[in-house]
Amino acid sequence: MLLTRDEIRFDFGGAEFDVERDRQALTWVFSQFLYGEVTGIQVGHWIYNAPDFDSAQFLVRQCAQELSHVRLLRRIFDRLETQPQPAHRLVKFLSTGLMGASWEEHVCLEMALGEGYVLTVFYALIDTVPDPLIRRLLETAARQEETHVAFGEEQTMRAGRDPRRRRHLLGMSLVSLFAMRRLAGAMARRMQPQHPVWRQLPAFARHTAELSELRLQRMGLLEEPLQAMSPVARTRLMTAGLLARAMAPLRFKRRRLTGTYLQDRAIANPALPPA
């Protein structure tokens, strides 16, 4: 990954949840993750539209891992002795509403940024939930999420070599960041302001946004700090990104792997002439 675990982790100063006292709040949090993991079925769309054989193979593994996380979360609900709750509308928007309209949007918005948000919260829960089983299950999921983020970063950097794609992906990334901040605000209104962990949520949300900005810089999409960009410039980028996304169904689509596999580097042997 382009960011280390030490960079991603937030210092809660030793504050922890009490599993008994915070059972309902933790149930709500894990319910949001459950929705995100169920959207692993969306990976199937990208297997069908993968640009090359290696990417398709990676996505097959990712899809299986995401769906295995559903069972992992079911074990956490069993540990909490609770049942899952519906997902917040902004979680649905970030997970499904921002589902990529192109391969480049998918790897940037859903993998590099979206799973980057997830990984940041996983690390936070590992540090603040004292239950050994829950921590162990989250560590298992986090290690797999790290590979998904790294794949998204690498693919996004490749896509960002094209200046027009780079500008579009930056605009859509700003839309994602806007939704993430709104979600953090919605969470803050639900939680106890005097709770040793929840009272740090505003600072944690700022930390998550700063990490996303740093990731955008290291992927080459962002050349200057967002604070140096005027609100008008940011609005223009977001508007242009959303407009291009709305027009995406009208754009020419690339050929699928079933039409290009004989030229794929994982299949073709460049040392041999074609039959």
Descriptive account of the structure:
The chain is mainly alpha-helical and 275 residues long. The protein has a domain of 161 residues. Helices cover 67% and strands 0% of the residues. It contains 11 helices and no strands. Helix 2 runs antiparallel to helix 4, helix 6 runs parallel beside helix 8 and helix 8 packs across helix 10. The chain is globular and about 65 Å long. The chain starts with a helix and ends in a 15-residue tail after the last helix. The model has no long low-confidence stretch (mean pLDDT 90).
Fold blueprint:
Elements: H1 5-8, H2 23-38, H3 43-48, H4 53-80, H5 89-97, H6 103-128, H7 132-159, H8 163-190, H9 201-218, H10 231-247, H11 257-260
Q: What's the short story on this structure?
A:
With 275 residues, the chain is an all-alpha fold. The protein has helices at residues 5-8, 23-38, 43-48, 53-80, 89-97, 103-128, 132-159, 163-190, 201-218, 231-247, 257-260.
